[in-house]
């Protein structure tokens, strides 16, 4: 987070009061004093006009150049401010204040090396003053030299223990380094010293967001906005916190406000795009990501997010193209490789997907999700040993990764190793008690091991205490069927849906579960028919599809 150029204006004004006016004509002095009075009243344009006249009357009037530079910085004319500070330095090379002020203006103008050099000169001329250290800390912070920035802010605090700005700056640097507790401590101190400091609240809100304290983040960002209604960063961060809480409309509104304040803020467009995607507005999301790319063509995350939205829309080629661009921009980031692997798998390019997952794992060797994804691709290729190894690696990387256990359980189940399948499915339930499909698999695995009556009773008990979902939803229908509370006709009828894709998925599941119950009852002919109908839905990404294929293969082998 970068400080706004006007953040230190009042401090600069008080600082330049220490630069006494040199003896000059009464006329120049009068205009100078009148300009100072106007600055105190924040009439910066009027002040600039008076300093202009003072300088016309006395061209070597160094302090007037400094004062005019501060006023110009206050109205956003940074080039003009830098020019004035440079003239003052030319006239009075030992005026440390002019060096520091020019350093601050250069920082805000993007000349970070120039800013650091000027502030270093200011420290040489004013070694006991906190401001040169704090300003150099700002420039180092913006340059990414976080350790150097923290050292400068710490020195500024040693010299001026009540410097709220230095605490806020150090908090920003500590946040960037990942020292979230240290950042909050600094922001707390800045707020204690300066309760009306919007930057401290905004920074603390961002840190709380990173720590997962969403309510605290929203409260701090709201306070920052109250104190500084044009704080685009606070709006953007509040939007992210609201999105994380599920308030997508609030998130979109906050991001829209951030964009209104700062129309060239690519991050705000990305954040709004993510919220729009969450609402299902894929076209709106893609439009926002595209705008972010227009504003910041080297922003890899914008391409990744647009790729995700395109994949969700079914534009797999467009998604792959975006992921590839993200990789070109940031080849050391594992995420775009994994995302491209998902898109390639969806296109049926299993070899390409496996290559991408492998590249992702080279960059991030402990990525449990990438191991699982590669395992799924290897399973789809028929490499069951490779898939089993990858699922085991995923579990090793994250022993609480419930879906890795589920996937391995399905491999065991399809291989008719129901004992080990049951172990994995029960582990899923232990890790995620709301995973209904794992409970269904527990029931079926127990049925295959001769415990169907007890398994159905346990499932009935679970369904009666299920505190989420509705009795009439599709998942509940599956449970009721497996527990013996619904017959085949009612269950298969419940799978029908007005949405063709949703219906295909539900029929894929329904025919597999119905076939399994028929198999348990010894009705192989009907089981075979149901498994064939499950496969006929062509929902190849469904676990039930793969299990139906495995059951048919076994039944055909039995018949021969």
Number of helices: 32
CATH class (first level) name of the domain at 1-160: Mainly Alpha
Mean pLDDT: 93
Question: Could you say which structural class the secondary elements and strand pairing correspond to?
Answer: mainly alpha
Number of strands: 0
Q: Do you know the CATH topology of the domain at 1-160?
A: Serine Threonine Protein Phosphatase 5, Tetratricopeptide repeat
User: Could you tell me how far the N terminus lies from the C terminus, measured between alpha carbons in angstroms?
Assistant: 70 Å
Percent of residues in beta strands?
A: under 5%
The best one-word shape is elongated
Radius of gyration: 33 Å
Could you describe the 3D structure shown?
77% of the residues lie in helices and 0% in strands. The radius of gyration is 33 Å and the shape is elongated. The protein is mainly alpha-helical and 560 residues long. The chain contains 32 helices and no strands.
Short description:
It is elongated and about 110 Å long. Among the domains are: 1-160, Tetratricopeptide repeat domain (Serine Threonine Protein Phosphatase 5, Tetratricopeptide repeat); 427-559, Tetratricopeptide repeat domain (Serine Threonine Protein Phosphatase 5, Tetratricopeptide repeat, Alpha Horseshoe), CATH 1.25.40.10.
């Amino acid at each position: 987070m970068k400080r706004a150029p006007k953040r230190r204006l009042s401090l600069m004004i008080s600082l330049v009061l220490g630069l006494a006016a040199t003896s000059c004509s009464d006329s120049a002095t009068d205009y100078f004093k009148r300009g100072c009075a106007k600055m105190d009243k924040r009439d910066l344009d009027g002040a600039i006009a008076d300093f202009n006249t003072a300088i016309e009357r006395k061209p070597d009037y160094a302090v007037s150049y400094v004062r005019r530079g501060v006023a110009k910085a206050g109205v956003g004319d940074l080039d003009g401010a830098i020019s004035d500070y440079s003239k003052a330095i030319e006239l009075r090379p030992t005026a440390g204040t002019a060096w520091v002020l020019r350093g601050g203006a250069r920082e805000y103008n993007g000349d970070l090396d120039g800013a650091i050099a000027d502030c270093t000169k200011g420290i040489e001329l004013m070694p006991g003053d906190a401001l040169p250290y704090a300003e150099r800390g700002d420039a180092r912070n913006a340059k990414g030299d976080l350790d150097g920035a923290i050292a400068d802010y710490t020195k500024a605090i040693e010299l001026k223990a009540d410097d709220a700005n230095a605490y806020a700056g150090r908090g920003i640097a500590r946040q960037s380094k990942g020292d979230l507790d240290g950042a909050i401590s600094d922001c707390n101190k800045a707020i204690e010293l300066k309760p009306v400091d919007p930057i401290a609240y905004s920074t603390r809100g961002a840190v709380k967001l990173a720590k997962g304290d969403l309510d605290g983040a929203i409260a701090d960002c709201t306070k920052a906005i109250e104190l500084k209604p044009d704080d685009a960063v606070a709006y953007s961060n509040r939007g992210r916190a609201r999105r994380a809480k599920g308030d997508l409309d609030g998130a979109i509104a906050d991001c829209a406000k951030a964009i209104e304040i700062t129309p060239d803020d690519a991050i705000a467009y990305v954040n709004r795009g993510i919220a729009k995607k969450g609402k299902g507005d894929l076209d709106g999301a893609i439009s926002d990501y595209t705008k972010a790319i227009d504003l910041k063509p080297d922003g890899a995350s914008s391409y990744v997010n647009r790729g995700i939205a395109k994949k969700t829309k079914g534009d797999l080629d467009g998604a792959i193209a975006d992921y590839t661009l993200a990789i070109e921009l940031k080849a050391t980031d594992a995420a775009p490789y994994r995302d491209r692997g998902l898109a390639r798998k969806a296109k049926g390019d299993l070899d390409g997907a496996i290559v991408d997952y492998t590249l992702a794992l080279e960059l991030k060797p402990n990525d449990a999700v990438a191991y699982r994804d590669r395992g799924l691709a290897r399973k789809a290729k028929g490499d069951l040993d490779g898939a089993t190894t990858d699922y085991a690696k995923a579990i090793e990387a994250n022993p609480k990764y419930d879906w890795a256990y589920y996937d391995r359980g399905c491999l065991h189940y399809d291989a008719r190793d129901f004992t080990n399948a049951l172990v994995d499915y029960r582990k899923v339930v232990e890790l995620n008690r709301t995973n209904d499909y794992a409970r269904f698999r527990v029931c079926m695995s127990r049925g295959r091991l001769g415990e169907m009556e007890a398994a159905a009773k346990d499932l009935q008990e679970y369904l009666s205490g299920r505190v989420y979902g509705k009795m009439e939803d599709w998942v509940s229908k599956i449970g009721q069927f497996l527990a013996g509370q619904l017959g085949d006709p009612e269950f298969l009828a419940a799978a029908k849906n007005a949405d063709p894709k949703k219906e295909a998925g539900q029929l894929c599941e329904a025919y597999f579960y119905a076939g399994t119950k028929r198999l348990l009852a010894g009705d192989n002919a009907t089981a075979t028919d149901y498994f064939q109908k499950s496969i006929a839905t062509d929902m190849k990404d469904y676990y039930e599809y793969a299990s139906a294929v495995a059951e048919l293969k076994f039944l055909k082998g039995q018949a021969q």
